[in-house]
Design brief:
Layout lengths: L1 H131 L6 H10 L1
Length: about 150
């Protein structure tokens, strides 16, 4: 009895396998028919993939070139910034020197103005004394003035 049960189970499993095999055969048949339709699409997908890979290679090369150029420009910019910083510091130093010179010149100017004011006061006193004396005219000067008129 056990042998009969095992034989029946084997027959059932074989029938199930046969049904699955037939189903798989039908699916493969459809795939073969549809597979022929997929060939042009697969071929165009392969071409597109090849083009995309070459475009990516070009983009990588271009990105590398742009990176090198940007690096060069960044170095030039840094060099210009350093020069500008140096010139700004130098200009500040010169401005400080100029400011010191102006301050010294103003102090000298004030001293000179005080001296001139003191001299003008003394000179005014001398002019007052000189005005009290009559002006003497030089005949040559008088003659020159007449000829100029």
């Amino acid at each position: 009895m056990l042998a009969l049960t095992l034989d029946i189970m084997i027959v059932v499993l074989l029938l199930i396998s046969l049904g699955a095999g037939l189903r798989l055969r039908g699916a493969l048949k459809i795939f073969r028919v549809d597979g022929n339709e997929f060939q042009p699409m697969i071929h165009s997908l392969d071409k597109a993939t090849t083009k995309a890979e070459s475009a990516l290679g070009g983009l990588r090369k271009m990105a590398g070139d742009v990176g090198v150029k940007l690096n060069d420009e960044a170095k030039k910019t840094q060099r210009l910034l350093d020069e500008l910083d140096f010139m700004t510091k130098r200009a500040d130093q010169l401005a400080e020197k100029l400011d010191d010179s102006i301050s010294k010149a103003r102090s000298i100017d004030l001293k000179m103005a005080k001296r001139i004011d003191a001299a003008n006061v003394e000179g005014a006193n001398e002019v007052k004394v000189a005005r009290k004396q009559p002006l003497q005219r030089t005949p040559d000067l008088e003659q020159k003035l007449k000829t100029l008129r």
